């Protein structure tokens, strides 16, 4: 059977998949792990789900599929085990007005900005913007010189050292203790504490911000709390100093530049301590700008429960939990498109890496239910359990899809075990009544970290399409690089 849907207006061309834009606006607000490009989500939702149809993403992540689906006026159900992902996605699909976030920032500023800046004052009364620490000792203090925004780099004086010491014994009062596991791949160990990752001053200032946010009207708190999660890595001791080259140009330079928190809990011997107010304010301003830009794209989407969305009485439901427990609650034969990017084996331990965000949000995620392969022995998350969970996901999905329904799975096949997994996954799809239709290479924008850092990234991430009907529409074959075969290691 041929998949036929009414002609769509405003359809993006398939070539956009081969040349995706860098993340902008709301998509650039938060550094969620393993973000996927928006272009394939948009194209496939438009082509594989009719307007008003039901799209499901059981492994939401940063919520790109959710925003694309609601903007395209499809009903949408999204799920994720990670509370940080779910809360971020809920805000993306229903952002507060930019004006309200701006006002809230002013309110927080009135309450705590002075107290925070005071903790960074220098002898010249100007707040330091950054400190460079090496092996627990402040080496350099950065501040502006007042008249211009040019920075001064000074050796610390007694005042700077005494000020830092006055916060050294600060113990967090609002933040819960983080739950870490011993995982050498991300440099974490079970005994790691917040004090290992932040200076006492940073923790005290983060808690001042949290307390101020807690006092705001509930409707506006969330945007600022999420801004704090988005900025918290940059407030930590994990911000390394870039020396000997320009950050963006790569051209050799004597100037030291501020790096950023990378994947994992690496604490470099030489690190920055960045002014917490500066980090927070910049992030909230970024959000305000992104919301203001998105306010021109009108979409009206009502949130509801899973059954309201599947029954057509609400537009979207963003649910926190294990998709293997939530998916069965959807009626059989009700979903037009499942489009999703599941965890790829051991590539990214999402919950372990999101722990700081969940600490800020006051959430305690259920690590046991995460589908992942982790190096942390105490978690017992190994390949056989992962494969079983993914096959279970496939089996449930095939029952939920309509006759004409499709599953699009974004997958990385970087290591040999994953190639084997793809073969067994597509064989199981057949037994679950789904045909493998083909795949296309996933292209990241030129500015993407994934593309920058990982050899062969362009050749090893794929979008795999499965369908309950035998053939696919022309729209898929138009995608640059489309192949009808399963990818093989040499592709
Ligand atoms: C590859 S990420 C999704 C990234 C997303 N496509 C994006 O662009 O941001 C996979 C997601 O699966 C989630 N996950 C892991 N186990 C899960 C489970 N049992 N149920 C639901 N979500 C789960 C993780 O928290 C993670 O956010």
Describe this entry's structure for a reader:
The protein is an alpha/beta fold and 491 residues long. It folds into 2 domains: 14-94 and 301-477, Rossmann fold; 98-293, no CATH class. The chain contains 18 helices and 13 strands. The strands form 3 sheets. The protein has a 7-stranded mixed sheet with strand order 9-2-1-10-11-13-12, sandwiched between helices. It has a 4-stranded antiparallel sheet with strand order 5-4-3-8. Helix 8 packs across helix 9 and helix 8 runs antiparallel to helix 13. It starts with 37 loop residues before the first helix and ends in a 14-residue tail after the last helix. S-adenosylmethionine (SAM) binds at residues 32, 34-36, 58-59, 61-62, 64, 79-82, 85, 322-324, 341-343, 350, 369-372. S-adenosylmethionine is lined by residues 32, 34-36, 58-59, 61-62, 64, 79-82, 85, 322-324, 341-343, 350, 369-372.
Helix content: 25-40%
The set of bound ligands, ions and cofactors reads: S-adenosylmethionine
Kindly name the structural category.
alpha/beta
Count of domains: 2
Spell out the CATH superfamily of the largest domain: Vaccinia Virus protein VP39
Rounded to an integer in angstroms, the radius of gyration calculated over CA atoms is 24 Å
* Order of strands in the sheet with most strands: 9-2-1-10-11-13-12
Just name the CATH architecture of the largest domain. Answer: 3-Layer(aba) Sandwich
Number of strands: 13
What's the main sheet like?
7 strands, mixed
Number of helices, counting only DSSP H or I runs of 4 residues or more: 18
- Compute the average pLDDT: 89
């Amino acid at each position: 059977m041929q998949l036929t849907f009414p002609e769509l207006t405003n359809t993006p061309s398939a070539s956009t998949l081969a040349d995706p834009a860098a993340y902008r606006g709301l998509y650039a607000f938060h550094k969620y792990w393993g973000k996927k490009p928006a272009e394939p989500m948009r194209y496939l939702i438009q082509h594989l789900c009719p307007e008003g149809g039901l799209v499901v993403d059981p492994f939401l992540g940063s919520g790109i599929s959710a925003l694309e689906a609601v903007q395209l006026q499809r009903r949408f159900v999204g799920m994720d085990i990670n509370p940080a992902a779910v809360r971020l996605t809920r805000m993306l699909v229903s952002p507060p007005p930019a004006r309200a976030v701006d006002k809230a920032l002013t309110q927080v500023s009135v309450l705590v900005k002075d107290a925070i800046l005071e903790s960074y004052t220098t002898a010249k009364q100007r707040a330091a913007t950054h400190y460079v620490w090496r092996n627990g000792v402040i080496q350099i203090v950065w501040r502006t010189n007042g008249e211009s925004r040019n920075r001064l780099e000074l050796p610390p004086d007694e005042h700077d050292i005494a000020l830092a010491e006055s916060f050294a014994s600060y113990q967090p009062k609002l933040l819960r203790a983080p739950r870490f596991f011993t995982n050498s791949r991300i440099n974490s160990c079970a005994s790691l504490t917040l004090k290992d990752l932040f200076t006492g001053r940073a923790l005290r200032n983060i808690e001042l911000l949290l307390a101020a946010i807690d006092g705001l009207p509930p409707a506006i708190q969330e945007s600022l709390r999420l801004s704090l999660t988005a900025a918290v890595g940059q407030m930590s001791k994990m911000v390394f100093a870039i020396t000997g080259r320009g950050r963006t140009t790569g051209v050799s330079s004597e100037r030291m530049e501020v790096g950023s928190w990378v994947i994992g809990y690496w604490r470099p011997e030489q690190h920055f301590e960045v002014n917490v107010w500066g980090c927070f304010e910049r992030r909230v301003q970024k959000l305000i700008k992104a919301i203001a830009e998105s306010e021109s794209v009108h979409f009206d989407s009502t949130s509801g429960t899973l059954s309201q969305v599947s029954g057509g009485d609400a537009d979207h439901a963003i649910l926190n939990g294990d998709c293997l427990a939530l998916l069965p609650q959807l009626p059989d034969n009700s979903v037009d498109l499942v489009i999703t990017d599941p965890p790829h084996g051991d590539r990214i331990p999402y919950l372990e890496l999101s722990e700081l965000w969940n600490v800020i949000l006051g959430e305690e995620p259920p690590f046991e239910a995460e589908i992942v392969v982790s190096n942390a022995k105490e978690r017992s998350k190994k390949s056989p359990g992962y494969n079983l969970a993914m096959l279970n996901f496939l089996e449930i999905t095939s029952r939920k899809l309509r006759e004409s329904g499709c599953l699009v799975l974004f997958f990385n096949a970087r290591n040999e075990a994953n190639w084997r997994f793809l073969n067994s996954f597509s064989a199981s799809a057949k037994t679950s009544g789904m045909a493998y239709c083909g795949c296309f290479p996933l292209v990241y924008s030129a500015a993407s970290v994934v593309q920058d850092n990982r050899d062969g990234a362009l050749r090893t991430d794929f979008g795999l399409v499965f369908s309950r009907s035998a053939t696919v529409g022309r729209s898929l074959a138009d995608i640059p690089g489309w192949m009808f075969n399963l990818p093989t290691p040499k592709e």
